[in-house]
Specification:
Chain lengths: 236, 125
Amino acid sequence: MTDALDWLRTSPLLGLFLTLLGYRLGQELQKRVPAAWKAVAQPVVVALVVIGLALWALDLSYEQYLVGGSIIGFFLGPATVALAVPLHRQAHHLGRMFVPMVVALPVGAVVSITTGVLAVRLLGGDHVLELTMAPKAATTPVSLAVSGAIGGLPALTAVLAIVTGIVGAVAGPAVLDLVRVRDRRARGLAIGASSHGIGTSRALREHPTEGAFSGLAMGLTALLVSLLTPVVLLLL
Amino acid sequence: MINGLLWLLGFQLAGEVVVRSLDLTVPGPVMGMVLLFVVLQLRRPPASANLFRAADGLLKHLQLLFIPAGVGVVTLLHVVGEQPVPIVGALLVSWLAGIVTVGWLTTLLLGRSSGSSGASVGGAR
């Protein structure tokens, strides 16, 4: 048994299997929970709990898990490229959306960065945490790079970005219902701008238009956050 | 499926090369998305193209692909424990400010007339 476990620790098999298993369990659970819980029971949330418990029970490190897990993670790259497809299908909306996008997305990025920094300051966090929080609305690879460049902690920024995305997937549509944003294009932009890829995964399942604009907002916000964060920080 | 994947990987590759040679801060896959969008708009392939099948297949399971990075978060949660109130509080406040700002501003700029396009959420929700 210990021999088998030692072998599994170095094999990609276990990480791959756990990732797919956690995801499938998450999907099945989401189907079975009462309607009010469906938003919270996002497959990614359930999978993180399942895999976290499995790693703890089997005494596996994150690096050992990643031997297999990174095979799945790799496909995030081509999947991001694939977001061009829903956007292509919604391209007829683009002309009408040009002005709203050119105004709302930069304003949204500045608001995200500013409120992040000021809220940390107000709640008693230190200066490094302010810098770490600033770029968290951007997709993980970008927020991580920006954080490193401005003197934040990239590893913690990655955590914040992913948690932000999960919050967006869980609560984004409900918040937009609450503040009466009903237009699918506006909802998509808002989710992608605030909750990047993980939020986009939820938006894609809500409606194709919502998903397409969420993917677009995610891409543009990545660009805006990398350009605007150093500028906004100078003013704060 | 293989052809479709080949297209996606090819555009990711092109994106990574462009970003690196121009020294941009945009991630390679995002640049690949822009390039693929431009090509799709110019060439307008039929709806049955392999690329669409591969793209739809991947996007259907987008959440799956975030799990490995998310597991890293679980192993780093102790860092959050050092300054829990500013971290959790600022994250939620800033996320809420961002999503509401973009949602409201876009709605405002689109004008009220666009609500009837069929692409909006019905009252049933």
